[in-house]
Fold this protein.
Amino acid sequence: RKGNVIITGASSGLGLATAKALGETGKWHVVMACRNFLKAERAAKSSGIHKENYTVMHLDLSSLDSVRQFVDNFKRSGRPLAALVCNAAVYLPTAKEPSFTAEGFELSVGTNHLGHFLLSRLLLDDLKQSDYPSKRLIIVGSITGNTNTLAGNVPPKANLGDLRGLAGGLNGLNSSTMIDGGEFDGAKAYKDSKVCNMLTMQEFHRRYHEETGITFASLYPGCIATTGLFREHIPLFRLLFPPFQKYVTKGYVSEEEAGKRLAQVVSDPNLSKSGVYWSWNKNSSSFENQLSKEASDAEKALKLWEISEKLVGLN
Ligand code: NDP
């Protein structure tokens, strides 16, 4: 019997490569949870995933109504859930002004963190109830949120501060649009959202791993310098970034290779440990990586969890 895996943002980049890697094994049915139905269908077709191995379902993470609607649709499909991969993200490094989700949260944190937070909370029961032998909830992290690395030290650095902006609603009205309460900065908002992703994974692990046996994990797949993530960046950056990563930092990884890495975290029996942030060596072997001080701060993770519950209407 095939396992069902939901992958958000599977219409391009890492999500698509992962859908392909898992689809090809014949052991997985991939639910591609995407905001652009046609783009996702086309992407699946052109990457050659067999139509028996995937379904596209609409999900716009920048609307909590859409998240709830997606969860209803998925439940109605009757598919037992073996794995959920929170992969989609927006990155707005050159934005001068903030954009907002349907509920009025700053778009990067609203989409990358809050949308996924609600989605994973609402699907936790489906994971619990499925009898698939190794159930997993994977949240894609990033090196850029980890200030214990070189890449994580390129300014503006991630910093959630005391979460006052988030607690205020992150809406630019009665609060800041930044989690720490500071001035809007698109690059920092993305990094902050990735710290939220990594903190959320650990809080899930602490709360639910023992009771449910579900594996909660995060990863940094390497620098996939060619994906659409950098589409909002200035042209010179987009031209120089891939060769820079290939030849200077040597952190470059192809979309295909990164997809194989994420597929490993979803399905490899050797990577079933919970609470881990996976990374890969130059020879492509996986290892348990250290998170930065902030990205592994249990007190912050708890506070983030509680504020996020309020914002998405779970509490
Ligand atoms: P892409 O931009 O190629 O993929 C992002 C995906 O997210 C797209 O499919 C996009 O949809 C989707 N998406 C964006 N907004 C929404 C939304 N509101 N609702 C639903 N889906 C949405 O980037 P990557 O493949 O590079 O990024 C994937 C993940 O990898 C992210 O979590 C990113 O943080 C992480 N990552 C990437 C690295 C890199 O070097 N590229 C390094 C480390 C981590 P659409 O196709 O419609 O635009």
